[in-house]
Amino acid sequence: MSGSANGHIVIRRQAKDGQPGAKGAKVRWGTYKAGKAYCSGASGEEFYDLVFHATYQQFFVCIRSYPASETHAPSQSTSNGYWEYQPALDNLFVDILCANEAFLNRLIVRNMYTADGKTQILEGGFLKAIGATFQDVKIFGTSRSPFVRYDGAWSWDDSDSIAQLHDNLLMEGGGSWTLAAGGFPWDASQNGRRITITTHRYNGVLSEGAVSIDAASGKYFFEDGLKKSELKMSSREYVELVGIGEGSTFYGWLVLSRGNIETNGRYGRMQKVLANGVVTFTGTESSPSISSTIKTFDGSTIYVYCSSTTGRYQITMPNSWGMTKASYMVMLTGMGWSYGASNSPLKATLVDKNDTYFFVELSDDASRNWGGGFQFQIINLNDW
After folding, report:
1. How many CA atoms lie within 13 A of 149 on its CB side?
2. This model's pTM is above 0.70
3. In terms of CB atoms within 10 Å, which of 140, 170, 208, 225 comes out highest?
4. Pairwise CA distance, residues 49 & 82, whole Å
5. What counts of helices (H) and strands (E) characterise the chain?
């Protein structure tokens, strides 16, 4: 069999000596139309017709030629002497355009199903799969799962397709109620799955009250370094979860983040901390020295200097942070007692700042003091 430039598949008859014989009839695909002449590929005929009947959604092959003046329509699932039903081609419609020899340029498949009926290829470029697994898949474009109402019923046997087919769930927050572990998935098939749950609105109505979900026996919700047997959600909140485990083992759900939506109260906004530090005076008035433990968000170095004449501390930040004196704030608290005293707690005061450094003084009265130390945070205000 070979391709043909006119858009048909050509069947060659085989000669007795093994060499290609004369060309036979060409297979002609199409949709059945009344009043058209059809051929069976008999000797001397150019075509061998295979048609798709749109009403029956079935394929038929012509077994007896007839002219356009006669009408012999295919009969569903039977042979009527002119057409023979081809069940092997059900659900498959092929439109072949040959650009050159032996090249099939286009294959169109309409409503193709797997044997179990759970995977379908639909017109319009859609693939529908229920409980299917795809390996080594690359997706270019967008992937989305619409938010749907979730009433606590969760099943993987096709009886509850809402929770099964969606990763974004709206839970009712009316009152205070607990969802039992059986209403949430805890098997190894959840490894790596991401779910977002909200108690914001349910059926279009703003939610009120708390919701909690119990963990299955031996499974946990992991949050803030803790293993929790219950996930609690306040009214109008969202929680992002990812299932964690390995192989056939499932440990539970890791809480990636949570936040509030359209609340009655105001919960504020997260701060962007550039550095946390502790500075301690370790010397004497005649021979002052300090120690410091400072951690920065990017691992860069902060330098601390204490003047031996004034006792004033200078903290210098990296130029790469790009700060101006108006774009950051410093939180300070004194630590310990003034030098030589046991009942004079120190306070730390920010006395001046510049783009890359700031000054701190310690005191327990109107004058500066040695001793003790202070703790500090540097907070970036540029994100506000």
Report:
1. 9
2. no
3. 170
4. 11
5. 1, 29
Assign a CATH topology to domain 149-260.
Answer: Jelly Rolls (2.60.120)
Which are the contacts of 131, defined by CB distance < 8 A and separation ≥ 6?
A: 118, 156, 158, 164
Alpha-carbon distance of 76 to 85, in angstroms, equals: 7
What is the three-class DSSP state of 347?
Answer: strand
Picking from 94, 89, 103, the residue whose alpha carbon sits closest to that of residue 1 is 103
Burial of 225 (0-12, 13-18, 19+ CB in 10 A): exposed
Distance of alpha carbon 185 from alpha carbon 191, whole angstroms: 11
| Token couple for 334 | 């004194």
Which band of pLDDT confidence, cut at 50, 70 and 90, is reported for residue 369?
confident
> Which position has the higher pLDDT, 371 or 303?
303
Q: Which helix (H) or strand (E) segment is 30 a member of?
A: strand 20-31
pLDDT of 32 above 60: yes
- Token code pair at residue 204: 């279009």
Contact 64, 81 (CB under 8 A): yes
Integer CA distances (angstroms), 238 to 13, 169, 196, 231, in order: 69, 10, 7, 12
- pLDDT confidence bin for 135, thresholds 50/70/90: confident
pLDDT value of residue 111: 60
Query: β-strand 9-14 against 220-223: which pairing, if any?
Result: unpaired
> How far is the CA of 97 from the CAs of 6, 23, 29, 103, 300, in angstroms?
8, 19, 10, 9, 64
- 144-150 average pLDDT score: 83
> pLDDT, tens digit, for every residue of 281-336?
887 777 778 899 999 999 999 999 988 888 899 999 999 999 999 999 999 999 98
Radius of gyration of the chain (CA): 38
For residue 274, the model assigns a pLDDT of 97
Residue among 79, 97, 85 nearest 51 (CA): 85
Amino acid in the structure at residue 80: N
Q: Where are the domains of the chain?
A: 1-131, 149-260, 272-380
Strands 20-31 and 47-53: parallel
* pLDDT at residue 76 tops 90: no
